[in-house]
Amino acid sequence: MSAVEMHVETYLSRIGFAGPAEPSLEVLRSVHTAHLMSVPFENLTVHSGGRIQLDPSLLYDKIVNQRRGGFCCENNGLFCWLLSELGFRVTMLSGQVKGSITGRYGPPFDHLVLMVSLDGHRWLCDVGFGNAGFSVPLSLETSGPQEQGHRVYRIRRDTGTCFLEWQREENRGPDGDWTEIYKFSLEPRRLEDFDEMCLYHQSSPCSLFFCKSLCTVLKPGGRLTYIGRKLSSTTFLSEEAGRVLETTTRDLEDEEIPGVLAEMFGVVLNSPLVPKDETITPPPVMY
Fold first, then answer.
1. In the Cβ-directed half-sphere of 189, how many Cα atoms lie within 13 Å?
2. Which of 95, 96, 63 is nearest to 79 (CA)?
């Protein structure tokens, strides 16, 4: 995937994974969760004078050496390389996220997701989605509910397109409402196929990533999220209880944000951050 050497042990150390790393389902699940709990989903490069480029060597340096995070193309793009080095058969896929404002889907290559084929079974992997993401890979061989702690997911198929859906805490149960998160096809893609949308997300007022400075990471029993000038912490009662216990939010002063990012997320920026939390403009063309 890249002429640059992948230091697998360094990468695994970065995400806190220890132990044999053979291509098994147990390892796939473990590295997926470890990645989510160690590498933030963030776009802070966009808001600190930088530019995101989908070059594997740059992604490796940023996420592994600089201990940063990234958005979908970065996190999943680099994770794809790691899985390949570990011996997994992995395929990049193009996803389209359903907008919470418009209720419509984004364009093709709006989101990068991964499919891993292992022992005749296909798994959906995604370490680059943020709050609505799943913690362990989802089976692509069933359309039935797949429960993960406080959430239930399912993958519905319709005329060659797969739809990832979830039930939120208040809608759980057989009669609960399913909410679409994103749709994707199983056609193989390459990292460079996402270059145009990577630029769009850094420059368009129709993109969440341009309008809001954000950083979020999965924590044991909850999630920590920074957006603009606010810090939110969500704690789940327990994996068994399956409901949110508490969400607390506090306002941040501009001068304290770098310290919060460093202490809470392990993110240290090379350039000053300009906090941003603007309203997203609905796109003129919707899918």
1. 24
2. 63
Q: Which residues are known catalytic residues? A: 72, 111, 126
Cα 269 to its chain centre, rounded Å, is 20
Give me the sign of the Cα torsion angle 181, 108, 25, 119. positive
- In the chain the domains, ranked by start, together with CATH numbers, are 197-265 (3.30.2140.10)
Res 7: pLDDT: 94
Using CB atoms within 10 Å of the CB of residue 249, give its burial: 0 to 12 exposed, 13 to 18 middle, 19+ buried: exposed
For the chain, the residue count is: 287
Pick out the chain residues at pLDDT < 50: 1-2, 239-242
Strand-pairing partners, residue 235, are 222, 246
**What's the N-to-C CA distance of the chain in angstroms?**
31
Answer yes or no: are the C-beta atoms of 203 and 228 closer than 8 Å: no
What's the angle, vertex CA 22, arms to CA 17 and CA 28, rounded to 5? Answer: 60
At a CB cut-off of 8 Å and minimum separation 6, what does 51 contact?
Answer: 45, 202
* pLDDT digit string, tens, across residues 201-240: 999 999 999 999 999 999 988 899 999 999 999 987 654 4
Measured CA to CA, the distance from residue 143 to residue 158 in angstroms comes to 11
